[in-house]
Amino acid sequence: MLGKKAKSRMIYLMFFFLLAIVVIFLVFKSLRENVVYFFSPTEIYNKPSISLNKKIRVGGLVKLNSITKDNNSINFIITDLKNEIIVTYKGITPNLFSEGKGVIAEGKLKDKKYFIANKILAKHDENYMPPEVYEALENKN
Amino acid sequence: MFKNFFPSRLLALNNKVLNMLIIIMCLIILVGLIFALFLSPPDYVQGDTVRIMYVHVPSSFIALTSFAFVGIASILNLIFKIKIAPLLAKSIAPIGFIFSIISIATGSLWGKPTWGIWWVWDARLTSMLILVLFYLAYILTWKYIKNYERANKISSLIGIIGLLNLPLIKFSVDWWNTLHQPSSITLTSAPTIHYSMLIPLIIMFLGLLIYSLVIFIMRYKIELIKAKIKKNN
């Protein structure tokens, strides 16, 4: 079944795939910062150098009981359960934005602990269930 | 079963079988939609917006798997020079293309009320857009390159290179931080969808898969007939 010509074509193809995978891997490695859509608070904390005027995104969970409103700005804390960052935002938040749920804030860092957001996105996780099931799970805990 | 792909068997395939498949498909999709739109519960976070999932998820899956078939057929074509391989790929590509567009469109409609935005350039969405472009390139190659052998070679190359995009799409949500959430249905762990939503999802999967099969059979028959005519001339 595997003629000589077919065999050589197959070897070319496998070599091509191997090469392509290496190239793509290197490309993504160098694009690292641009391929990730956001950084977690821990990643911000661990970054050796941050330019404080570059537009970046921070993502994580909205820390419970951390949302406070004053005048027309809203303040809250993004946590990844290891590190936190305080975010301040002026504007309307999406419907799904709430404590304990995922969020991505886009804006600029004031410093490693403080973030000024100009856009807020809500991130939802991969769990789907009816409200009754959720309530039953909450009551169990 | 694979014998049915051979020209003689498929062309002889009775219209009755195809018509029966179409009836089954309509019934399954009808039942699926009734569950998806009315009988299934709302989500504890997203409410009724979750119902778009019942179209979005199967469409995305079909868009991905279809290109896998196109890619494998392209490999069979370039390495083993199997004559029906490009015909199979030509028949599948438009189906995958349409479902990739449906995936992005329904995803957008789902994203605006939930995430707060129609589109982001995160890894999952961007790689899906790249898939759309690969489909487009594949289909347009056959449409506009008049020489059969040339169109065959170029389209097969497009199919093979596009295969590399597929693991990118699939694992984008695991490898990088993305706005799009991780997979709810995986091969290695239990589904994170409650059964009251998982079952309508499976029904919609089935219905849309049968739809793809029906369209594929229709297109493949036409490709076989075209090839036969070409051979006789």
Class based on secondary structure composition and strand pairing of chain A: alpha+beta
Helix content of chain B: over 70%
| CATH topology description of the largest domain in chain A | OB fold (Dihydrolipoamide Acetyltransferase, E2P)
> SS-based structural class of chain B?
mainly alpha
Count every helix of chain B, treating DSSP H or I runs of 4 or more residues as helices. Answer: 8
Low-confidence stretches of chain A: none
| Euclidean distance between termini CA atoms of chain A | 61 Å
Q: CATH homologous superfamily of the largest domain in chain A? A: Nucleic acid-binding proteins
Radius of gyration of chain A: 22 Å
> How would you characterize the largest beta sheet of chain B?
none
Order of helices and strands of chain B: HHHHHHHH
Spans where pLDDT lies below 50 across 5 or more residues of chain B:
none
* Counted beta strands of chain A: 6
SSE string of chain A, helices as H and strands as E: HHEEEEEEH
Strand content of chain B: under 5%
What average pLDDT do the residues of chain B reach?
91
Largest interface pair: A-B, 37 and 39 residues
List the quaternary state of the chains.
heterodimer
Quickly give the CATH architecture of the largest domain in chain A.
Answer: Beta Barrel
Tally of contiguous helical segments of chain A: 3
